[in-house]
Amino acid sequence: MTRWIAIAAGTLYLVPLIGEHRGGEHRDETRIPLRHPGWLYGGIALHLLSLIIDVLLVGALPLSSMRFGLCALALVVIFGWTVLHRRPQMESLRTLLVGLALVLLGTAQVAPDAGGTADLGSPWFLAHVALILTGLGGLAVSFTLSVLWLVVRRRLKRKKLRGISRLPTLHTLDRLNYQAMVLGFVSLTAGIAVGGMWAATNPEAQLGADITIWGTMVLWCWYAVGLHTRLVSGWRGRLAAVFGVGGFVGLGAMVMVAGLVLQGWH
């Protein structure tokens, strides 16, 4: 049942994207309703409902399986849009963030349910899940900001200035990208630490050979190097954007290999 609720949520997410594509820069009265944020908020309500049902009735918890993890991450990405869209010229980010959320949500519907046991009674495990999801959500937002930075820069270099005033400046995107990356990295670091504490207090935890743990550590090292280089050497602009894109693409590859090929999700 929750799959159908999630599909309905994805359908509502899709409506404003269709309105944006059909309307372009011409906002006539017949197409404005398709762009209304109410569609997205309705999708968020259904999306959240599907996760609550899974937790209460199935006993599942986000990250306990590939399907639940991707579904929860998609919701965190949408929450990122609700935070950023109120800033000036940030409406253009909606297509990227909602599009990424749709990809995550769609992949979740065909992903396996198999996974580890969700320790709902452990505050360490609950904190681990919340922090890891926040971290991955921050890195996902960093990815979309990096993509938009590269798009804006490409348009400026090619002198394609039509509608460029509706897009955020490169400086704004670079600053927000850095903030999102720091949020993601700090939350991911805390989530890894709390997960280690949970494993230490749980005698049934056998995580030494878990591919997702090793993949997460590689991801952590990637962003640690990137942030350190930025702070020490002032690494900004194009290199920082490419770094943000590469890190999230690597994360996606790790998730696909762990969940679909190796069946190593924990």
Task: Please bin the fraction of helical residues.
Answer: over 70%
What is the H/E order? HHHHHHHHH
* Oligomeric state of the chains in view: single chain
User: How many angstroms separate the termini?
Assistant: 23 Å
Could you explain how this protein is built, in words?
The protein is mostly helical and 266 residues long. It has one domain. It is 74% helix and 0% strand. The protein has helices at residues 2-23, 32-35, 38-58, 66-84, 93-110, 123-157, 170-201, 211-233, 238-261. Helix 6 packs antiparallel against helix 7 and helix 8 runs antiparallel to helix 9. The longest helix is centred in the middle third of the chain and has 35 residues, at 123-157. Mean pLDDT is 80; it is low at 25-31.
Primary descriptors:
9 helices; 266 residues; mainly alpha
Task: Lay out the secondary structure.
Blueprint: H1 2-23, H2 32-35, H3 38-58, H4 66-84, H5 93-110, H6 123-157, H7 170-201, H8 211-233, H9 238-261
